[in-house]
Amino acid sequence: MVSKPFALLTALIFTLGSLSTSFAFPNLQAPNGNLLRRQEAEDSTASQAGGGRPIQAVDPPPPPGPLSFTGTKLVNDRDHPWRPLRSGDQRGPCPGLNTLASHGYLPRDGVATPTQLINAIQEGFNFDNAAAIGATYLGHILNGNLVTDLLSIGGKTPKTGPPPPAPAHAGGLNVHGTFEGDAGLTRADEFFGDNHSFNQTLFDKFVDFSNRFGGGFYNLTVAGELRYSRIQDSIATNPQFSFKNVRYLTAYGETVFPVNLFVDGRQTERKLSMDHAASFFRDMRFPPDFHRAAQPSSGAGVEQVIAAYPWLPGANADGKLNNYVVDPTSANFTDPCSLYRFVLGSVQELYPRPTGILRRNLIKNLHYWYTGAFGPAGCPEQFPYGQL
């Protein structure tokens, strides 16, 4: 059984869609103790950004609370018109975030603060506050610039400020192995060269399964069938396929988001039409007259998707196809705190000895993440960098 707090966690470890991830270390492998020595940023300004202008360090504020009004409402409105991409705008594996940026709920260049992200996904999709906090800060801690408090929803960009010393990277949500991952619904595996762009072939499969199992609509029955099929696809075609730890959990969460968040909130039946699916996944655009969910939502239905084809975390071993080996050490659904401990270890590999502003911001962001994702699950809070 998946606990409610953990369903919230899987819920926006987001992908409001990637619906497609091993970056500096594949699939966030556990730390091995070989920590790199390096000089951490300590100044209140972080050297120079792309155009040579100083980047001011930011003291990250606490995350915003729930919306004052949490019912359905028109979100494709006059104040948030869709606009096409401009040169340099960032978009990534998550159709939901892409849509919010294209409508101006997020900065249209795709670079935002955690506060902006949490407010936008609540306002645009009525996403549950705790799940929004948990997912946003996870992405920010692993892929954002903690000194400037900025995260790219797509690829690496100088707009987030100077990158931290390696192995940290501030590479944005396109980085493989955190939010983005293998066996995505509409994004290809990173092994094939593009892990973040809309993939028409995979969307055709999405439509085919919706026709075969959902009467032309995407619902939880379709989600269970398609999730299992995409796992089998990757086992058979991707010798580097990895399906464990963070990705194992997000892969199930992303399958239910279209049902919970992309269906007009005035509908009583939770099923997504193919024209609305194409609008989000392909066009990064709210359908005409779209109203957000009628109540705060996140990962409802994850249990049903898992039950359709129970699957254990693991990977193709030894770089061979059809050689899937279960990893009993991976984080999983039975122990919510296992993911917390795993990610903390991975963060310490990225930032082995932070000092000054960077250490302060790590402490604060880790606490914000804990309050949304793991406090509700009863996990003891840990302080790898001490307390302020």
From TrEMBL:
Q: Which residues form the signal peptide?
A: 1-24
GO MF annotation: an example = metal ion binding
Cross-referenced Pfam families, in alphabetical order? Peroxidase_2
Decide whether keyword Heme is in the record. Answer: yes
- Cite the Heme haloperoxidase family profile domain residue spans from the record: 78-307
Give the top-rank taxon of the lineage listed in the UniProt record for this protein.
Eukaryota
Statement: the UniProt record of this protein carries the keyword Iron: yes
The annotated regions of Basic and acidic residues compositional bias extend over: 75-89
Q: What is its EC number?
A: 1.11.2.1
Instruction: Write out the entry's keywords from A to Z.
Output: Heme, Iron, Metal-binding, Oxidoreductase, Peroxidase, Signal
**Region feature (Disordered):** 38-93
Spell out the Gene3D superfamilies in the cross-references: Chloroperoxidase-like (1.10.489.10)
InterPro entries linked to this entry: Chloroperoxidase, Chloroperoxidase-like_sf
Cofactor (UniProt): heme b
Enzyme class, broadest EC rank: oxidoreductase
Q: Which family does it belong to?
A: Belongs to the chloroperoxidase family.
State the name under which the record lists this protein: Heme-thiolate peroxidase
